[in-house]
Write a structure and sequence with these properties.
Layout: H1 3-18, E1 23-27, H2 33-39, E2 48-53, H3 57-62, H4 68-74, H5 79-93, E3 97-103, E4 117-124, E5 127-134, H6 139-161
Parallel strand pairs: 1-2, 1-3
Antiparallel strand pairs: 3-4, 4-5
Helix pairs in contact: 1-6
């Protein structure tokens, strides 16, 4: 595992394990990369419950239960969608925390939005923190950067909430 990813996943695992907390993830543009990185850490099953790669709009509706009206109003690539994804996967996984990420890895715009636009959300019970970022690079680079940004955001939120 890349050293930068290993370090952040290790820090996240320490907080979750120390507080006996479980994590679930909903990924879109990262295509399972975040889950891949987490499961490279030996013992991840002690804190990592599940992951959903909800790549299409249809799967966001059918698997995660995101309302079509929300997707129509805000788009698949939106902060509102990231928040809904995090809330849904936390509930489905019956976990303490959930992380979600949605965005555009490219190579073309989507919903009139630029390549590299990424939204991340972390949910806990009735609390949610979210943010949008703009990344540059090729498709693979954006997926990797978005995954690292999401994990770093999760770590920052966990330090405050856990």
């Amino acid at each position: 595992m890349d050293n930068e990813f290993y370090k952040i996943v290790k820090k996240i695992s320490e907080i979750l394990l120390e507080n006996n907390l479980r994590l679930s993830i909903a990924e879109s543009c990262t295509g399972g990369f975040i889950s891949h990185v987490i499961t490279n850490l030996p013992g991840a099953s002690k804190f990592f419950e599940m992951s959903v790669v909800s790549y299409s709009e249809n799967s966001k509706k059918s698997v995660l239960g995101i309302k079509g009206s929300l997707l129509k109003k805000h788009g698949v690539i939106s902060e509102d969608t990231a928040i809904a994804m995090a809330k849904s996967v936390r509930k489905t996984g019956n976990t303490d925390y959930a992380l979600s990420v949605t965005g555009i890895a490219g190579p073309e715009k989507m919903e009139g939005k630029d390549v590299g636009l990424i939204y991340i959300a972390v949910a806990k019970e009735d609390l949610v923190e979210s943010k949008g970022i703009k990344l540059k690079g090729r498709r693979e680079e954006i997926k990797e950067q978005a995954s690292l940004e999401a994990l770093q955001f999760l770590y920052q939120v966990l330090k405050i909430w856990a």
